[in-house]
Amino acid sequence: AKEAGKDKYVVFDQYLNDIFTERMYIEKQLYLALEQDEFELFYQPQVDLALNKVTGLEALLRWNSPELGYVSPLKFIKVAEDSHLIIPLGAWVLSKACTFLQHLHEQGFEHLTISVNISMLQLLQNDFNELVLNTLESSGLQPHYLELEITESIFVESYGHVSSKLNELRTHNIKIALDDFGTGYSSLSYLTHLPISTLKIDKSFIDSIPAGTNKATLVEQIIMIGKRMNMTVIAEGVERKDQLDFLQEQGCDKIQGYFFSKPKAGKDIEQLLADWEMTGIT
Ligand code: C2E
Ligand code: CA
Ligand code: CA
Ligand code: CA
């Protein structure tokens, strides 16, 4: 079987420059992957700066293809969206993430929340809210532990439809995070009209810290706006201590990034949480 895999890889390699063929190939492999259980969820800690504790995890999809090796979600999510495979794949992610968090709760990590990335296409499905509520029900997880991460592009496409759905989810105490905030079509009016609980500052802004730069000034403004609007502000892609210090000084609530931990497989994150419980976050 390994030999056959190698041959196919060579075939793939030949066409690597042909984007269309590559996409077709990935699409085909994605279908097989879902059937053959090749996906895995990794989890990255979100650290509350005031508590100096992990309060949540973001679930991040990983695909280890025997054919293609490791494929970045930046590449395959787009293909999954275009081919609508994101619908069953997204449902799988949601279910897996909620089940894992419920497991962690039972291991004694009762306070943790789980953040799950949601594609626009998922949110546009008529039965999306039903899917979310059913998934919570069958995993045994209480709704306020679940946060859905969405991006602003969703609103540009169909604001009214999406906002009523999100409002309904909020009435169930499910949290909504605005991901990659500051990139794309940012409009501050979204913030006042939508039930957003969390603002997630995009990594590109965090990269520009230290203080004194224009983008770092924007980070200060975003944090201020979030606080004014009673939202939790989280910074993503924090890699260095000086970024952490700056964000803490500005009153940012939470941090996610390699500085604390890369995303890890379920059993590894469980170990990390147990270790940090003993030693404090290191
Ligand atoms: P995202 O939602 O903005 O996720 C954050 C990305 O930044 C993740 O990349 C994470 O591994 C990476 N990251 C976190 N901290 C650091 C850091 O300190 N330094 C650096 N260099 N990177 C950091 P990843 O896991 O490759 O995911 C890429 C994107 O793929 C995600 O961006 C998200 O848009 C999408 N994605 C991942 N999993 C899912 C999923 O289950 N569903 C959907 N719809 N999209 C997903
Ligand atoms: Ca995200
Ligand atoms: Ca993000
Ligand atoms: Ca991003």
UniProtKB/TrEMBL annotation:
Domain EAL: 23-277
Protein name per the record: EAL domain-containing protein
Parent-protein start and end of this portion: 310 to 591 of 592
